[in-house]
Design a protein that fits this description.
The protein is mostly beta strands. It is 0% helix and 33% strand. The chain is built from no helices and 16 strands. A four-stranded antiparallel sheet has the order 1-2-3-4, with no helix packed on it. A hairpin with a 5-residue loop joins strand 3 (21-25) and strand 4. The protein starts with 5 loop residues before the first strand and ends in an 18-residue tail after the last strand.
C-alpha cells in the first residue's frame, strides 16, 4: 500500500489497494467496521497495479476514491454509505488512486489515466450530497494560458495527460504559506486557487501555466 492511515478520535481509517476501507480501534486493534468496494475484477485501465493512496476525512465522513471512478462517502462511525457518485469512468481511462482531500465543505480529488490519453483534471464535490461543485482541467484549453504551446491544427491537447494520480495538493497556512491554522488556499503543483465553494475555472490563477506541451505528458513540476 502507498498510503498514510488517518487517525482521529481513537480510530484509524485505512484503505486497501482494492478500495476496501476499514476503521480500527487504536486501543485494541479491533476492526470496528469495514466497507467493501466490490470492484469489477476486469478493470483494465490501471497503470501500475491496484492501489490507493489513502482516504479523506471530514464532516463525520470518510471519503474513498475508487479505481472504478467512483467517489464514495462513508459514515465514519459505522461505515454506512452516505453517498456515492460516478466521478469518472474507468472505461474511458480515468481512475482514482489519490487520497481525496476534504476542506470547508468540499471533497477534492484528482484522477489517474495519463497512460491512456486522458486530459488531466481535478474535481470538487459537495461533502453533504456529492454534487459536483467545480472542475479544473490541468491541460489548458482554448483561451487559457499555455494552450498556444499545443499544436493549432489538431486536438491532441485533449489527450495531454498531466493527471493528478498522487497527492492532490498541499494546504498553505496563510496567504504566504506560513503560520496560522486556517488554510486559505490550496497550492497544487501547477496552479493555485482560492478554496471557496464558488471557485470556477475562470477564477483559477495559474502559477506555472499548467501543463505546457513542452513538458512530458504525465509529469508535474513544482511551481517554486
Amino acid at each position: 500500500m502507498t498510503q498514510r492511515p488517518i487517525v482521529y478520535e481513537g480510530m484509524l481509517y485505512i484503505v486497501t489497494g482494492a478500495d476496501d476501507a476499514f476503521a480500527i480501534s487504536i486501543d485494541s486493534g479491533e476492526i470496528l467496521w469495514s466497507y467493501e468496494a466490490d470492484l469489477d475484477p476486469d478493470i483494465s485501465t490501471i497503470c501500475c497495479g491496484w492501489t490507493s493512496r489513502g482516504v479523506g476525512l471530514g464532516e463525520g465522513k470518510v471519503f474513498v476514491g475508487q479505481l472504478d471512478g467512483k467517489l464514495v462517502a462513508l459514515d465514519r462511525h459505522n461505515g454506512d454509505v452516505v453517498w456515492s457518485v460516478q466521478a469518472e469512468r474507468w472505461q474511458e481511462g480515468l481512475t482514482i488512486t489519490s487520497a481525496p482531500l476534504y476542506y470547508d465543505g468540499l471533497v477534492i480529488t484528482g484522477f489517474a489515466g495519463a497512460e491512456y490519453g486522458v486530459r488531466g483534471r481535478v474535481k470538487a464535490y459537495d461533502a453533504d450530497d456529492g454534487s459536483l461543485v467545480w472542475t479544473c482541467y490541468t491541460v489548458p484549453g482554448p483561451g487559457e494560458i499555455g494552450h498556444d504551446t499545443w499544436p493549432a491544427d489538431n486536438e491532441v491537447w485533449k489527450h495531454g495527460g498531466a493527471t493528478v494520480y498522487a497527492q492532490v495538493c498541499e494546504l498553505c497556512h496563510g496567504p504566504d504559506g506560513q503560520g496560522g491554522h486556517a488554510a486559505e488556499s490550496i497550492e497544487c503543483r501547477c496552479f493555485k486557487f482560492s478554496l471557496t465553494r464558488s471557485t470556477s475555472l475562470t477564477s483559477l490563477t495559474p502559477i506555472f501555466s499548467r501543463n505546457f506541451r513542452a513538458l512530458s505528458r504525465s509529469r508535474w513540476f513544482s511551481a517554486e
